[in-house]
Request: fold
Amino acid sequence: MTDVTDKVERAIARFERVARNIDERDSPSRDAARRERQRLNAGLGRTVVRIAVAVALIWLATIILGLVMPIGMFGFLAALLVTGVVAAVLIASGGRLAVSAPAPAADLPNGAMVERFDSYVYRTRAALPAPARAELDAIAQLLPSLKQTLSRLETLDPAAQDARRLMSIHLPGLIERYERVPPAYRGERDGEGKTVDQRLVEGLSAGRAALAETSEQLARADVAALETQGRFIQSRYGEQGVAGEDAPST
Reply:
């Protein structure tokens, strides 16, 4: 009986791996993975630059100290040790950021907050049920355009506040509360007949709708501003306006 159970569990595990691989090939997941790779590459580049700057400063200080007073072999070894320790610390800090993607801090600028939330969504989705992953994928599709519109706004701009609260507090809080519920209790129904999984999906769906509404409002405001500017230029510098200005006075 135990062998049969083990075989069934292994078959289920294989099916889940295959389903996850198929899911990762879907367009929203693929786009999110591409953005995450770009962020990781950018983070690696920043780490390399920080290490290079730190090493240069350490050895510049060592050279200056050596010109003032002899440092000897022990001083040289000490500089090597300091270089190794600093490089290890910088590499470790960069590695922690790459492995884990915490929820966005509430004080981040708008563009950086969207980037951090995008990474958080990508790294969180694998631990959630399929309907919740679909909602996260739909949210991820909104984020590139939302970043473009939010990046030009100030942090305290009222138009950005709801989106900022959703990305830094409400949606991460919903996911974290879901993860705290033991899997054995996620199928139980509450007073309204809904399971924990259903509550999660409904909350993510509401957050997605709110982010979509904010993104649309900001985009429509840009369209209206462009239309107004275009009409002004047309009325001020259109053919009739230019001809009128160039016409000789009588």
Notes: Helices lie at 2-24, 27-68, 72-99, 110-124, 130-150, 158-180, 196-237, 239-246. Residues 27-68 form the longest helix (42 residues).
